[in-house]
Amino acid sequence: MVLRLTCLASAMVALSTGVATAQTPADSQPPAATDTSQDLLLRADLITEDRNGLVMTAEGNVEVRVGERTLRADRLVYDQDKKTMRAQGHVEISDQTGAFQFADEIEVDEDFRNGFATRFSARLGGNSIVTSSSAVRTDGTRNSLEQVVFTNCPICEANGGTEPTWSIRARRAVQNTETQMITYQDAVFEIKGVPVLYLPYFAHPDPTSKRRSGLMIPDFGNDSKYGLFYEQPYYWSISPSQDVTISPTIFADINPLFKVDYRKRFFSGFIDLESSITHEQEFNSDGDRLGDDTWRSHLYGTGKFNIDQNWQWGFGVERQSDDLYDQRYDIDGEDDLRGLVASQPRQLLSQIYTTGQHPDFYFEAAAYVFQGLRAGDDDAQFPKVAPTVFAQKVFDLKQNGQIATDFSAVGLFRDARATLPNGQSALDTARVTSNTTWNAQYVFGPGFVLAPFGQARGDYYRVDSGLGEGPRDISRVLGAAGAQLSYPVIRRGENIDIIVEPIAMVSYATTNPNSVRLPNEDTLLFEADESNILKPTAISTYDLWEGGGRTAFGVNTTVRFSNKFQVSSLVARRWRQEEDTSFNDLSNLRNETSDYVASVRADLGNILAAGARLRMDDNLSVNRIDVDAQANIWRVSGGARYFKIAETPARVEDEGLVWNGTLKVTDRWSAIVEQARNITQEQDIRLGLGIAYQDDCSYFALIYERNGGRDRILGPSESISFRFALTGLGAGTSNN
């Protein structure tokens, strides 16, 4: 029997929202419990009504639908006089969000704010499930549950209804739909049904809750530098657009550390700050204290804001009180990108900048301040860059190519004289450059591609050596012209395509431009490699100029397979009219003949991606090699990088290996290994071994890690860490 009614609509809405069910986030609009405009469809095998029409009973396969909500039960009794509705037998409530509630019996009162359920269970979003022997709703906001079990692990009766990986079992729990918190009394954490932790009180956010304030999972353990420690983060959701995480840490052997992380999002941008502070002496890896107590701290932060749709400004700040502070307290993030420019390893960079971009125009201006963290660094000799400016305007000449005009200026200021790599002393340096470049591309004959190039540039320098001689002015006018010629040859096959492209370049530029009177501040780490060796002007910095005649030749090859696999390679070399001792050996532009540079890259989809970059001399001795690979084959996945450099700017050889791998022993158990090794010094910078378990609702890992790095009074250390993440509750680590 089917009836279409309106008198039960509000009851149905209340039934699906009024008992202990999946809760709506606080910043969303909940369904209106008094909306009676929707028709209600009642379906049952038998529907009866008393003589006064005040009590209606539906029995047998009862189904009630109102809007997107559905109630199913064996029996339904609606008492219009008492304003109560009772659903009995295999009660199931569902809605369009996919939320389900189950009970043996449910009853709600006259205003549908309060009620009770027996043998109640509900899905609270995702895989989160709560079950209880009974549920009572009071004040329209509090759901009191007795004999409660909560888990975020999927439970499938078809697979034998096995115990979930983890669960919380409690004598009593209260779900508050206003605060969106679930609190437990006499809570026991269970792993595969085995009790592992008892807490007289425990609370966590409702899984449907968004950001909210509260204690986070603590971090605790033992470290040789500072002994036992306990860190307890507290998350404070100040507003929908800002929050703070406050993390005091107590140590057994040293004074406490106080961390504060702040985030705020504005209509036009964001701010993200990380900081810490303590009052302590320096200490070494064994926990021995040195020197006097003083305030020590760090601040890492970034921000970025839109001025309008084309212009932005931002900042990055990286400062700490002493150079080993981050390593003593194991603070990460020293080498993160915060702004336009990334800092070098063990060097902090604070910056403020603005950028603007249009289809044919780009502008940026910035100021930078450095802080060295390496032994021997003298911050007084690091330049303060204030400002650096770059602007470029592009003119499209259609079939005749493009003209790009750009302007660059920089000012470098030091508190103490520094000795530059060319042996000069420098205190303050300023440079202004104006540059115009013309590029074009023409295709002719059987497929030749000709790309001519022309450049005119002027530089003005003002240099103060700090030796009492006063500043000196230096200027130079530079020019270059050349062309690149290539001839791509394509052979298409049924299952394979082969592309071979010989590339030749010839150009000529102003000779003898690099005077010993000019400083070299920006070309210390430049290297002519496969990305630029075939360009008419290989160098992209300003202080050094590649003059005279030069030519280059290379071959670019690509092989594409029908299954979308691809292998590509490039081999190239550069010749110049005469050597230029202004360049160092690392640049690959010093001698009349450059080293051979080569690269090869194979992309085999998700199975394997690998590449190698080489630099070899006339005897094919390797001066630089850099190999990387990512693999996912059978049950093995991981990545590796090997590099070897014959001579670094510090004139020493450097060779290293970084790799990590995971072997899936079973579908859920894995073995983990990672290593970072300095082969030159025969030293493991980091070595980690571990085992891990992962399923749909949890992650557990036991990791042994050895840090073999040495930096002045800090030496090697070892640790064993237990890392875990429980879906729906958060993540944490425990270290020993």
Structure characteristics:
single chain; 736 residues; mainly beta; lipopolysaccharide transport protein A fold; 31-stranded antiparallel β-sheet; 13-stranded antiparallel β-sheet; disordered N terminus; disordered C terminus
Oligomer: single chain
CATH architecture grouping of the domain at 2-210: Sandwich
Cα-atom radius of gyration: 35 Å
User: How much is the average pLDDT?
Assistant: 86
- The CATH homology group name of the domain at 2-210: Lipopolysaccharide (LPS) transport protein A like domain
Query: How much of the residues is beta strand, in percent?
Result: over 45%
Structure description:
- This protein starts with a strand and ends with a strand.
- Residues 2-37 and 731-736 have low confidence and may be disordered.
- The chain contains 2 helices and 44 strands.
- 24% of the residues are buried.
- The longest helix has 10 residues, at 9-18.
- The protein has a 31-stranded antiparallel beta sheet that branches.
- The protein has a domain at 2-210: lipopolysaccharide transport protein A fold (Sandwich), CATH 2.60.450.10.
- With 736 residues, it is mostly beta strands.
Short description:
This protein has 2 helices and 44 strands. It has 736 residues and is mainly β.
Present the secondary structure layout.
Layout: E1 2-5, H1 9-18, E2 40-43, E3 46-49, E4 55-66, E5 69-79, E6 84-94, E7 100-108, E8 115-123, E9 129-138, E10 142-151, E11 166-176, E12 181-191, E13 194-205, E14 214-215, E15 219-223, E16 227-231, E17 234-239, E18 242-251, E19 257-265, E20 269-283, E21 289-306, E22 311-320, H2 325-328, E23 347-358, E24 361-372, E25 384-396, E26 402-419, E27 425-439, E28 442-444, E29 448-464, E30 472-486, E31 489-492, E32 496-509, E33 548-561, E34 566-576, E35 596-603, E36 608-616, E37 622-633, E38 636-645, E39 654-664, E40 669-678, E41 683-694, E42 698-707, E43 717-726, E44 730-735
Antiparallel strand pairs: 1-2, 2-4, 3-4, 4-5, 5-6, 6-7, 7-8, 8-9, 9-10, 10-11, 11-12, 12-13, 14-17, 15-16, 16-18, 17-18, 18-19, 19-20, 20-21, 21-22, 22-23, 23-24, 24-25, 25-26, 26-27, 27-29, 28-29, 29-30, 30-32, 31-32, 32-33, 33-34, 34-35, 35-36, 36-37, 37-38, 38-39, 39-40, 40-41, 41-42, ...
